[in-house]
Each structure stands twice: as structure tokens, then as C-alpha cells.
UniProtKB/TrEMBL annotation:
Residues 1-24 are annotated as: Disordered. It is found in: Cell membrane. It is a multi-pass membrane protein. InterPro entries: MMPL_dom (IPR004869), Mycobact_MmpL (IPR050545), SSD (IPR000731). It comes from Nocardioides oceani. Gene3D superfamilies: Multidrug efflux transporter AcrB transmembrane domain. Residues 232-364, 566-709 form the SSD domain. This is MMPL family transporter.
Length: 733
């Protein structure tokens, strides 16, 4: 954007007797706002049909969406799993293991024998289970005879096997008696139990966050009616995205986490966008009411002004969020792609509701949005005196405030240097979860590495050589005799029990050794190996995703602001809050500080998927605030050409919105740190700390200081760049 002041629109607004169209001199979004008000019935019908049509599928979301997909597509372990499922009676990593333990003599006799028969009958009656394998001495029957494992082969893909686990686990556990305990376990049960614990945590967190969220909204809006508008956007976005995910799941598997994250983002962004738009509309209506323009055309002018300013910022913010999350699609893992897709879908619906449904509601309610106002509410106040004073303070002493915020951020970011990551261990489950109880019993009866048995699939001719390699490897405790395929494929499977727990880092070294020493046809798989391959893929994808997110974020800011320097600084500033959030995460989850307070058992690492996925989420939220602040600054600079007015005015007009929206997000995210398994806690702490630091230190201190220090240079645009970029302005008369 050049340093010249944008031309102001001329001419009075239209009135009932005027020939001047209301949409004259408006931008595209302003004209959209007017069109929405002129076609209120059509817009209302379209939204009602959308919500009703997709809402009919929404109740199925919990049951239909899958829980697996945490795998590295194209990896050796996934290939081994598919061969095992196809050629070895479903004896793959997704098979269900039912642990039957007797406290009254051998499990294969007396009451234990009867329970084993009942377990087998339940499994054989399930059509999605392939071959049911009875306990085998020396392999799945413990030496003391007290513990046995009944193997239920996977007769469907991994996503469906998680549903099978969900459908059968209660029935299987009910077969327990006073002397015999039944606990299904295995990879499919782990995901089933985890999804169940995660869903409970999400619901508890939502219940805890709603009262706080509503209180903050009422304080921010100053009126109960206005505070309810974000709920309208959230409801519309949630219902539509939930129904859409169910339909998409008919085509490609969608993780249940997609809905969990979609729910959070629909709430967070719905509040952000509604705050920004409603505050601007109230100010526009108050100004026009003061001039006597209270007719329909006056309301339309207010809608147009709101959409051409706040609406434009919301659109650019939404595009930034979508672009940031789209980079996660570069990770070739179904779970990550479906989670990113679910969030993007909710953002699209919330964005559509903000740009069409919200203007219509504002137009219809008009001054009634101020109903049930708090005594101190100033509904027409757009420029906050307190944040204006804060801007003046920053302008006078930029180095003091800038350096102070920078020191805090760098100090919190310092621990990131020692951050280690790994795939989640069994500790992510509650201690009474079936999968964890069965896991512990298998480990106790068969050895530390028994829950993470490796599955090697190879050509028959290489079986002897492979067996010799396993026999001589110090990381292997025992290896079963080669098992021929059930068909004439010429394949054999060798199962090997490692010496260490599946989450022990030494297992990775063992797998690397085996892959180097085994015959070329041998594929090394098993549930723990799938985790290792996924971690490797995540480690390789993370730098690419971060780079793409930063580049795309910068380019979008550049297009929106037309100013290379402040676009670059705004993008890089987001890295500070992200690094600080992960520094705190290392102290909490890797080192265990605060573990007792938050109620979890430290795994000694951060889950491997956190850096890539949380970075994209944090950056999306951070750029959301960046767009709001810098769009307001650009608007003031276009009007005045004064860098001081750009900095102080942006804080005065958007600081209160950023503060309120940040407070809501922090409240929502931190509630996730108080309940449920470790991954939601990680999400709550990382995102909560990131938003806290980004909204209150980066966007309300550091970024305004950068505007102060760079002055006119922040808004300078080279002539050659002006010719390339589209002409986007934010000033509106």
C-alpha cells in the first residue's frame, strides 16, 4: 500500500426519496451485505435447508467417524499389516486380543475353560472378525497356565476394527466372573478406549468452558442478546460441518478427532468473527443514528461499512486459517489429513455464516442487539479509550515494552532445545481402561515386549535366514516358528517378541537393525513398528509443513496489506509464541512439572504429532489476530498517512476485540488441560499458552512496537509490487 491517503467516498447515503443506489461506492463485501439484506428470505431459506439437511446426519457423527488412520501411508509396516490381514487369517496389528486370566487354577480348566468358550463364541459370531485362534502353549498361553490370549483376526480395515472393538468390548468384559477376568486389548482396543476417553474429556471440557465463555462474551459485548450471536455462528458451523463429515466418511475414512477439533475451532472462530463484526456494526449504527439516518437504507449502509472493513478482515483471516491448515495435508497420514480437513470444513461454514447469516441477523435485530445491556455498556463505542491510552504508552516507550515482551517469550521458548517426541504410549489411557488392563496383564505374563510383538512377512524361501537373524539379535527375546500363509501366496509370517516395552526408544534401534540385516523380501510390521514409521514420517514432514505455512501466511498477508515489511514481521512474530508454547510443553509433559496438578503420568516426551499439527493450529490462530490488528492499522494509515495513528488507532479499535477473543480461547483451551487423557491435555496446554502469549504479548505489545519502530517503512510498497498485487483497501466512509 502506498503512503498516500486513500480517497474518501463522496455523496450522502441514499434515502427513501433518493435515486442514488445504496450499493454505490461499496466494495464487493459491502455489496454482498446489501444483497443479503435485500434477499433476506432466500438467505434464510438456504441456511435453514443447509442446517436441517446436514443436521439430519449430524447425530451419527460419533458412531460413524473412525478412530484409526494413525499410520504412515506407503510405509513398510502398513504393507506388512495388509499382507498379514489378507493372507494370515487377519493376524495383523489391528487384530483384537482378548486376555483371559484366572485367579483359581489354570485358565484352560474349570470355570476358565467355560469363559474361554464363551469368548470364542462371541468372537466367531461377529462377521467382521476373520479367524479366531485359540490360546497356544508357548505363545499365547502363559507358562504358569493362568493367562491366555484369544486372537480375533481382523476381517476388515483398521477403521472398522476400531468399531468392532467398540461394539464388543463391553460384551466381552461382562463374561468375567469372580475367578476369571476378561479384558480385550490390542491396537484396535487402544484406539477405541482412547476415543471414548477423549470424547468424555471433550464433553467435560465443553461443560466447564461454557460458563466462562458466556461470562466473557457478556462482558465483551455488554449485552446478553449480542453475546448470543457467536453461539448462532458456532451452532450453524458445528451442525453443518458434523453432517458434512458423516457424508464424507462414506467416501473416505474420517477420524473422530476431526469433529473434536472442528468443534473447538467453530467455537473459537465463531466468537472471534462475531466480536469483530458486531462491534463494528454497533459503532456504524450509532454513528448513523446520531446523524438521523435510521431508515432501511441507513441500516444497509451500516451493514456495507461493516462488511467492507470488519467483514474483509474476517474473510482474510479465514483464508489465512484455511491456508495454514491446508499445509497439514502434506503429511501422508489419513488421520492428520482428516483432522485438518474437519477443521477446514468448520472454518468454511463459520466463515460463510459470518459473511451471510450474521449480517442478516444484525440487519433484522438492529438496535435490539443491545437488549438486556449491562449498566456500564457503551454499545456504540468502537474506539476504546483504554486501549488508545495503551497505544500511546507503547508509542512513547517502545523499546522498554518491546524488549520486556521479547525477553519473556525467549525465556519461555528456551526449553524447546531439549524437546523430545515419540508416539503415545499406553499411559495415554486411564488405568481402568480395558486395553491398558489387558496390556499390563500380557506384559506381566509374557514379558515386557509381548504387547509389542513384531510381525515379519516374507517369502517362504527367506524364512530360515530371517529366523537366524532374529535368533542372534539382542533386541529379540523370542521368535515363533514361521507360519505359512492360509493360501498359496508363498508367504510366511514370523512373530518376534522384543526385549523392551513398545514405547522404549531401544525398540526403534532394534527395528532399524532388523531391517538392515533381514532378507530383502522381509517386511517388518506390528503395531509398535507402525508407530515408529509414523513418527519418522512426522519428523520428515514437520520442516516442510512449517516452511509452507510460513511462506503461504506471508504471501496472504502481503496480498492483504500490500506492505512487505510488516507482513514479514507479522509472520515471524508468530514463531515466538509458538516456540514459547512448546518450551512450556516440554517442561510440563516431558519433565513432568505440574503433572500432579493436571492429573497425568508423564511419558517422558511430547507426543510426536504435536509439533506439526499444533504448529499449524497455533499459526492459524495467531494469524487470525494478526489480520485483525494489521487490517485495522492499514485502515487508519489509508485514512491519515500517519504511522502513529495507524498504531494507536489499531489498538484503540481492535485491541478490545483481540483481548476478549483471546480470553475466550484461553478459557476454552485450558479446560482441555483439566480432564481426559494426555493428548487433550497437551492440546489444552500448548494451545492455551500459545494464545495467551500471542494475544496479550505479541499482538498487543510486540507487533504494535514493531509498527512504532518501522514507522512509514512498515507500509512502504515498491512500485513493481504495486503493479502485481490486487488493490485491497480497508478504509470506508
Amino acid at each position: 500500500m502506498s503512503n498516500t491517503t486513500a480517497p474518501r467516498h463522496a455523496g450522502p447515503p441514499s434515502s427513501p426519496g433518493s435515486t442514488r443506489p445504496v450499493s454505490a461506492d461499496m466494495g464487493p463485501l459491502g455489496r454482498l451485505g446489501v444483497w443479503v439484506t435485500d434477499h433476506a428470505k432466500l438467505v434464510t431459506v438456504v441456511w435453514l435447508l443447509t442446517i436441517a439437511g446436514l443436521g439430519a446426519f449430524a447425530p451419527q457423527v460419533e458412531h460413524n467417524l473412525s478412530g484409526a488412520g494413525w499410520q504412515a501411508e506407503g510405509s513398510e509396516s502398513v504393507e506388512a499389516r495388509e499382507l498379514a490381514r489378507e493372507h494370515f487369517g487377519g493376524n495383523a496389528s489391528s487384530a483384537i486380543q482378548v486376555v483371559v486370566r484366572s485367579t483359581d487354577g489354570p485358565v484352560t480348566e474349570g470355570e476358565g475353560k467355560d469363559v474361554l468358550a464363551e469368548v470364542t463364541a462371541v468372537l466367531e459370531a461377529e462377521p467382521r472378525i476373520a479367524e479366531v485362534v485359540a490360546p497356544t502353549p508357548g505363545a499365547t498361553l502363559s507358562q504358569d497356565g493362568d493367562t491366555a490370549i484369544v486372537l480375533a483376526g481382523a476381517g476388515a480395515d483398521t477403521n472398522e476394527m476400531v468399531r468392532v472393538a467398540t461394539d464388543l468390548k463391553a460384551e466381552l468384559q461382562e463374561l468375567s466372573t469372580d475367578a476369571v477376568e476378561v479384558n480385550p486389548t490390542g491396537s484396535s482396543l487402544l484406539w477405541s478406549d482412547f476415543n471414548e476417553a477423549n470424547l468424555d474429556a471433550m464433553l467435560k471440557s465443553e461443560l466447564m468452558s461454557w460458563p466462562v465463555t458466556l461470562a466473557i462474551l457478556v462482558l465483551a459485548f455488554g449485552a446478553l442478546v449480542a453475546a448470543g450471536l457467536p453461539l448462532l455462528l458456532t451452532l450453524a458451523g458445528l451442525v453443518a460441518s458434523a453432517g458434512s463429515l458423516v457424508l464424507i466418511n462414506e467416501l473416505v475414512p474420517v477420524s473422530i478427532w476431526a469433529m473434536n477439533f472442528a468443534m473447538m475451532f467453530a467455537l473459537a472462530l465463531g466468537i472471534d468473527y462475531a466480536l469483530f463484526v458486531v462491534v463494528r456494526y454497533r459503532a456504524a449504527r450509532a454513528a448513523r443514528a446520531g446523524s438521523g439516518r435510521t431508515d432501511i437504507a441507513g441500516k444497509q449502509r451500516a451493514i456495507a461499512q461493516t462488511m467492507d472493513t470488519a467483514g474483509k478482515a474476517v474473510l482474510l483471516s479465514g483464508l489465512t486459517v484455511l491456508i495454514s491448515l491446508s499445509a497439514v495435508m502434506l503429511v501422508p497420514s489419513p488421520s492428520f489429513r482428516s483432522m485438518a480437513g474437519g477443521i477446514m470444513l468448520s472454518v468454511l461454514f463459520v466463515l460463510a455464516a459470518t459473511l451471510t447469516l450474521l449480517p442478516l441477523v444484525l440487519f433484522k435485530l438492529d438496535d435490539r442487539i443491545n437488549k438486556l445491556a449491562l449498566p456500564w455498556s457503551k454499545s456504540g463505542e468502537h474506539r476504546s479509550p483504554r486501549f488508545a491510552a495503551w497505544g500511546e504508552r507503547l508509542w512513547k516507550r517502545p523499546l522498554v515494552w518491546g524488549l520486556a515482551s521479547l525477553v519473556v517469550l525467549l525465556a519461555l521458548a528456551a526449553p524447546i532445545a531439549g524437546l523430545t517426541t515419540a508416539m503415545p504410549s499406553i499411559k495415554v489411557l486411564p488405568e481402568d481402561a480395558s486395553a491398558r488392563v489387558g496390556y499390563d496383564q500380557v506384559q506381566e505374563s509374557f514379558g515386557d515386549g509381548a504387547p509389542g510383538t513384531l510381525q515379519l512377512v516374507m517369502n517362504d524361501a527367506d524364512a530360515a535366514a530371517a529366523t537366524e537373524v532374529l535368533k542372534n539379535d539382542d533386541g529379540i527375546a523370542a521368535a515363533m516358528p514361521p507360519m505359512p500363509a492360509a493360501d498359496d501366496s508363498g508367504l510366511v509370517m514370523v512373530q518376534a517378541v522384543p526385549t523392551v516395552d513398545p514405547s522404549d526408544p531401544q525398540l526403534g534401534e532394534t527395528v532399524d537393525r532388523l531391517r538392515a540385516d533381514l532378507p530383502a523380501s522381509a517386511l517388518v510390521g506390528g503395531a509398535p513398528v507402525e508407530n515408529l514409521d509414523l513418527k519418522t514420517q512426522l519428523d520428515e514432514s514437520t520442516p516442510l509443513v512449517i516452511g509452507v505455512v510460513l511462506v503461504l501466511g506471508f504471501l496472504l498477508l502481503l496480498v492483504a496489506l500490500q506492505a512487505p515489511l510488516i507482513s514479514l514481521l507479522g509472520t515471524l512474530a508468530s514463531l515466538l509464541s509458538t516456540a514459547a508454547a512448546f518450551g512450556v510443553a516440554r517442561l510440563v509433559f516431558q519433565e513432568g512439572y505440574g503433572a500432579d496438578l493436571l492429573g497425568f503420568e508423564s511419558q517422558g516426551f511430547l507426543d510426536a504429532w504435536a509439533p506439526v499439527f499444533f504448529f499449524a493450529m497455533i499459526f492459524a490462530i495467531a494469524m487470525d489476530y494478526t489480520v485483525f490488528l494489521l487490517a485495522s492499522a492499514k485502515e487508519h494509515y489509508e485514512r491519515t498517512g500517519d504511522p502513529k495513528e495507524a498504531m494507536v488507532g489499531s489498538l484503540a479499535h481492535s485491541g478490545r476485540v483481540i483481548f476478549a477473543a483471546g480470553a475466550v480461547m484461553v478459557a476454552v483451551f485450558f479446560t482441555f488441560a483439566l480432564s481426559g487423557p494426555i493428548p487433550p491435555k497437551e492440546m489444552g496446554v500448548v494451545l492455551g499458552v500459545a494464545v495467551l502469549l500471542d494475544a496479550f504479548l505479541v499482538r498487543l505489545v510486540l507487533l504494535p512496537v514493531l509498527l512504532r519502530l518501522t514507522g512509514n517503512a512498515a507500509w512502504y510498497t515498491p512500485a513493481w509490487l504495486k503493479r502485481i498485487l490486487p488493490n485491497i483497501t480497508f478504509a470506508h466512509d
